[in-house]
Amino acid sequence: MGVLEVKQLSKRFKEFDAVKSVSFSVRKGESFGLLGPNGAGKTTTIQMVSGLYPPSSGSIEIAGIDMVRQPKKAQGLLGIVPQEIALYQTMSARENLSFWGRMYGLKGNHLQKRINEVLEIIGLADRGKDKVQTFSGGMKRRVNIGAAILHRPELLIMDEPTVGIDPQSRSHILETVKRLNEAGMTIIYTSHYMEEVEYLCEKIGIMDHGEFITTGTISELRETIGDRSRIVMKFADAYQPDGIIDILSAGIPEKDLLIKENELAVFHQEPQIILSELIQSVTGAGYEITSVEIVEPNLESVFLHLTGRSLRD
């Protein structure tokens, strides 16, 4: 049994199905990446797993505890790092950790020892007495992570923890998450940065339109596009998609063409061989190309091929 077992999970808001019969599991010690374009249902799924939204149907178990029947007990096994900073700005980092530690039932010497350990983990041992309002955005997010791991949760859920921070803080957070996972902590990680998920997660689920469209390891997901690279061609102006398809469909399957505003992506095993002909066909039809790039097979290519959308759509 996994630390998290989700079965046939659905959420309906009036006439809108935000999540549709989703099932997945996360094993103990696993780092699971959850990806999807905006509106795919990721946030709603995370909110149900966290116990913030009751599901319309389906079940959620955290280490064998039913989230619907025993929400308080199940929530006690979770650590949540939300998108927004959840800290008291006029309190110090240590005071914030003390407050959240008590909320989790920690107290006395055990709480103080754990606060010291966590301040070391997040790299803020020398700033523990400073007020959070004096911290940079990245430092605040590190305290947010510290608050979520004080009680050594069975499952740590991180919802875009590096949004809007500087590269140095982002790197520190990624390394912290990596070390936590290597030490045995089970993690669900959502991000708009594809390279973060590739770096941190051994298993990935991709959502779109409220459903899981695939799950697997990075190597398993890459097999869905094989060794096909992606030719990315940008144009000076937006164009009519049907026109591009008519030009290219004779030699390239339509499923390997992704079209969006002033950008065209073509998947092919031998991009260098078709590139010249591709450029000639497009420019010959009157389209002005501003840039061309060949991208080797990666997680982003898999994502685009499966959803037809970029992560931020």
Describe the structure.
By secondary structure, the chain is an alpha/beta fold. The protein folds into two domains: 4-217, Rossmann fold (3-Layer(aba) Sandwich); 229-296, 2-Layer Sandwich (Alpha-Beta Plaits), CATH 3.30.70. It is built from eleven helices and 14 strands. The protein has helices spanning 42-49, 71-75, 93-103, 108-121, 137-149, 167-182, 194-200, 218-222, 241-248, 271-284, 299-307; strands spanning 4-13, 16-26, 31-35, 57-62, 65-66, 78-81, 155-159, 186-190, 203-208, 211-216, 229-235, 257-260, 263-268, 289-295. The strands form three sheets. The chain has a six-stranded mixed β-sheet, with helices on both faces. Strands 2-1-4-5 form a four-stranded antiparallel β-sheet. A four-stranded antiparallel β-sheet has the order 12-13-11-14, with helices on both faces. β12 (257-260) and β13 form a beta hairpin. The radius of gyration is 23 Å and the shape is globular.
Kindly state the percentage of residues in helix: 25-40%
Compute the CA-based radius of gyration: 23 Å
Strand content bin = 25-35%
How many strand elements? 14
Measured distance between first and last alpha carbons: 35 Å
Keywords:
313 residues; single chain; Rossmann fold; ATP-binding; ATP binding; 6-stranded mixed β-sheet; alpha/beta; P-loop_NTPase
Topology:
Elements: E1 4-13, E2 16-26, E3 31-35, H1 42-49, E4 57-62, E5 65-66, H2 71-75, E6 78-81, H3 93-103, H4 108-121, H5 137-149, E7 155-159, H6 167-182, E8 186-190, H7 194-200, E9 203-208, E10 211-216, H8 218-222, E11 229-235, H9 241-248, E12 257-260, E13 263-268, H10 271-284, E14 289-295, H11 299-307
Parallel strand pairs: 3-8, 3-9, 6-7, 7-8
Antiparallel strand pairs: 1-2, 1-4, 4-5, 9-10, 11-13, 11-14, 12-13
